[in-house]
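User: I've been trying to design a sequence by hand for this structure and keep getting stuck. Would you show me what you'd pick, starting by listing the structure so we're on the same page?

Assistant: Good idea, let's start from the same input. This is the structure you sent:
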């Protein structure tokens, strides 16, 4: 049996980041910001969704069906019913594999089957297959990009930066929104850049609660970022809305 945890994994990851599988010239009349929540903990649904809604905005929640109702990284993950409610309220439920797989460590047929199961689960609870996908742990590989890129309109990693000019729809950049590692000052500068030069800025985080984990964000921080976005009159859209707007479609 092939060991998918091979020593070339690091090289594959670097190559996978460097090789654009779905190069796309991003043209947006106005800058766009998306807020995304990976896994996603119940607290993200309970605390972030209402804050976004209060700003007449919606979020993108990356769902891993096998985690639903269980604990991941010490956080209670939202159940299918919570995801269904978010979808009914026009939030986006994106794909994140069913078992939160490290795409570098699984055989191609296993990865494809797992993603198909997650897509079916999301379709069952939301009425539609997911438009976008986030690579679990932000890990990409050449075989994962090749296998998954045709199945979604866009796929997001955790490579920081604003999406602008030529982008790779199979590896959209995203900026972490964690209380411990992203200051309001640095976020303000990023928003200024976005306003000045245009593009698409995607934030990602996990839990959203008053005392967040090291990969989470407090409601106070999220509220402050939303205030900064509103003051700059920047548009907030889900990842799916933005992909739709730019005409990105899955190939299969
Ligand atoms: Zn995740």
């Amino acid at each position: 049996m092939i060991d998918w945890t091979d020593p070339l994994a690091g090289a594959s990851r670097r190559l996978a980041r460097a090789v654009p599988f779905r190069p796309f010239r991003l043209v947006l009349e106005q800058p766009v910001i998306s807020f995304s929540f990976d896994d996603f903990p119940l607290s993200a649904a309970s605390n972030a969704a209402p804050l976004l809604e209060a700003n007449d905005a919606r979020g993108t929640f990356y769902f891993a069906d096998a985690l639903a109702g269980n604990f991941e990284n010490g956080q209670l993950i939202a159940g299918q019913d919570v995801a269904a409610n978010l979808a009914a309220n026009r939030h986006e439920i994106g794909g994140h594999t069913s078992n939160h797989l490290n795409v570098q460590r699984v055989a191609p047929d296993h990865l494809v089957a797992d993603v198909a199961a997650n897509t079916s689960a999301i379709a069952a609870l939301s009425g539609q297959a997911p438009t976008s996908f986030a690579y679990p742990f932000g890990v990409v590989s050449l075989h994962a990009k090749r296998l998954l890129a045709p199945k979604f309109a866009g796929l997001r990693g955790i490579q920081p930066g604003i999406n602008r000019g030529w982008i790779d729809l199979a590896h959209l950049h995203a900026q972490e929104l964690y209380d411990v590692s992203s200051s309001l000052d640095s976020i303000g500068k990023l928003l200024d850049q976005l306003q000045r030069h245009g593009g698409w800025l995607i934030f990602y985080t996990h839990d959203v609660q008053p005392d967040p984990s090291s990969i989470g964000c407090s409601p106070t921080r999220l509220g402050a970022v939303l205030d900064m976005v509103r003051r700059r009159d920047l548009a907030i859209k889900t990842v799916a809305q933005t992909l739709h707007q730019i005409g990105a479609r899955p190939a299969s």
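That's my pick for every position. To get oriented when you compare it with your attempt: The chain has eight helices and twelve strands. The two ends are 29 Å apart (CA to CA).
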